Amino acid sequence: MIDLGLSKLAIIGVVALIVIGPEKLPKVARMAGTLYGRAQRYLHDIKSEVSREIELDELRSLQKEVQETAQSIKENVEHSLAESRDDVEAAWRGHDSSPGVTATMDDLERKARDFRRKKLVRNSAVPGWYKKRHGGKTHIMSGAARVRKFRPAVQSKSSFF
């Protein structure tokens, strides 16, 4: 960087005054100040843009690392789930008491579907008089009605004094 002291600036000012003249010196000084300010703003913009690009590059690399880590975690979880499923299926096959019968997923889904259907039929087939006699629910009560029904009674503090 150029080392400009007070004495050097004074010499530059005197030379400029002699060369340019006293009439044009203020105009030239104003123009030089304006150009110097523009140059400073331009350099500041370039520095901020470079720093923004560096930060953006760092963020991209961080994003790439996070994605790689997430992918590896996903693969580990999928691998452990596959191992667990294989272990369960092996245990299920080894647990069968009859060697000729094996349950498939379709059989299990069909049994679950039949169970849900039979349970729905069982629950909806109970007559109203039976529910009333044995304390079953006969109608749906809203949340506000339940709160009012089960809220403890508030004792009033009315005084005649």
Search tags:
translocation; 0% strand; protein transport; TatA/B/E; mainly alpha; transmembrane; 161 residues; 5 helices; TatB; elongated
Characterise the protein shown here.
The chain has 161 residues and is mostly helical. Among the domains are: 1-53; 55-85. The chain is built from 5 helices and no strands. The N and C termini lie far apart (94 Å). Residues 84-96 have a biased composition (Basic and acidic residues). It is found in: Cell membrane; Membrane. InterPro entries: TatA/B/E, TatB.
H/I helix tally: 5
The low-pLDDT segments are none
What's the helical proportion of residues?
over 70%
| Beta strand % | under 5%
How far from one another are the termini?
A: 94 Å
Shape: elongated
Structural class: mainly alpha
| Mean pLDDT, all residues | 83
**E-strand count:** 0
Radius of gyration: 44 Å
Helix and strand pattern: HHHHH
